[in-house]
Specification:
Elements lengths: L8 H117 L6
């Protein structure tokens, strides 16, 4: 090989060929890394899309369940209100019946007392008759 000075065209040409080969290798390496990174990005986007879709489906199901539970709760609250109304009605009816029972017992006692009085008077008036 010929030894040339640093500014010799032949030397410059050889140096240029060596450096363009190194640049080409670096460029090829960067292109390979870019392709790999783009593939990873596409895969990550797909996974993100799938997860987002799953999350939206779950959110939709939860919202539907929330609406259903809210409707069920409202129906139960209406039933409880109706049952409480029935309980109040039954309590009122029971109180009325208890007052009536008390009055009937009192009337019965008064009737027994009058009947006993009538029997005593009749025995006094008619001592020899047996009823």
């Amino acid at each position: 090989m010929l030894t040339c000075c640093v500014f010799c065209p032949l030397r410059l040409l050889q140096d240029a060929n060596l450096s363009s080969g190194a640049h080409g290798q670096a460029l090829d390496s960067l292109k390979a890394q870019l392709t790999q990174t783009e593939a990873q990005l596409a895969c990550t986007r797909d996974e993100h899309f799938k997860e987002k879709t799953t999350l939206l489906e779950r959110e939709s199901l939860l919202q539907a369940e929330k609406v259903q539970l809210s409707n069920d709760l409202a129906a139960i609250e209406r039933q409880v209100g109706a049952e409480q109304g029935k309980v109040r009605d039954y309590q009122t009816t029971m109180q009325t019946l208890q007052r009536e029972l008390h009055m009937l017992k009192k009337e019965h006692e008064e009737y027994k007392q009058r009947a006993t009085g009538i029997l005593q008077v009749s025995f006094q008036l008619f001592p020899c008759c047996c009823f």
